[in-house]
């Protein structure tokens, strides 16, 4: 009866426009079967209806194979529950109808791909407070809604949540890291419910010849997918890993519990990057950056320009965070905040946090705020993705003239033979690498709307 009534009046209400905006819909699916959809109870809402097909397109005004209506909100939300069992990879195509302020509004929803299944539904706490956070191209959120989460409780990386990088950044990115990112089981894996992202040094035979990553390549240029060694321009001497969230967002609270990697000339990738990759604007927002060298002494303290930092040891006891809007030092460090600890951050797990709003970024470690960055003059008003990984060497991460213990940095950032010089000293730096300790190990990730 309801469906017939809705279809009869749609030709009239579809053209109605007013100040009301149909809220974004949230879908939650359970492991045991069943799913629910809900929208926040925006003032004036009197009815909420949902029409969907699973793994099949739905035509405008068609009732769909799954449908229902709610006439009363519950605890600040309009909620509909269904018994249908969804699985990861299923796609829900839908449209919804809302009666608000005595007018009808129909909205075609973007298809929802099921990326995770829950043990239980999320507890909904009161009326939705519209958040400043937006996700996936501008979709609205409610304050305190979890918009992204991974506890790494599966046997493999959930590719609905993460894109695994498979490309060669060495000769295409300004920093020219001395590693490839490869989708291999020995560079990324889940062990004990923790994500391990591992750098692996390669033998002499693997730095010569060709590296063909065309199958499954995530790069946008041929040089990122295929490279042939020429003279001293070796193939990357390290195979590493990097994953990027499939959810993009602007503003939010990020929490990552992780153990940073240890080993000479290794650096962690725990950062936000613009969702729309821009080679000309490689700005990043570091959430946790600490070089893998246990002790790394600069010969010139002016090589970096971190606010409030006047030391010379930029090794594993120095934690950095903040936006890096330029590639080269010392300009790269000007907007960073820091914390200097008694022990290297790679010694143990820590919870790294970022609260990002329109005007400010605040950075935390183990619930302690250690710095903030004013954004009133910065252009960071774009959606970002979360990147996790490890990198090695490069032209901008390790200043000239640094000493790791008693070992001098084996390459110059201005030397065309930098990779060759780095690889020649492999017998020295590889001794500082450890099978487990050189991994970035991530316990969990959660991003919440603000």
From TrEMBL:
Residues 1-18 form the signal peptide. InterPro entries: Beta-glucanase-like, BGBP_N, BGBP_N_sf, ConA-like_dom_sf, Glycosyl_Hydrlase_16. It comes from the Eukaryota. Gene3D superfamilies: 2.60.120.200, Beta-1,3-glucan-recognition protein, N-terminal domain. The keyword Lyase does not apply. GO terms for biological process: carbohydrate metabolic process; innate immune response. Residues 169-450 form the GH16 domain. Residues 20-119 form the CBM39 domain. Keywords: Immunity, Innate immunity, Signal. One of its GO terms (molecular function) is carbohydrate binding. Belongs to the insect beta-1,3-glucan binding protein family. PANTHER family: GLYCOSYL HYDROLASE-RELATED (PTHR10963), GRAM-NEGATIVE BACTERIA-BINDING PROTEIN 1-RELATED (PTHR10963:SF60). This is Uncharacterized protein. It comes from Photinus pyralis.
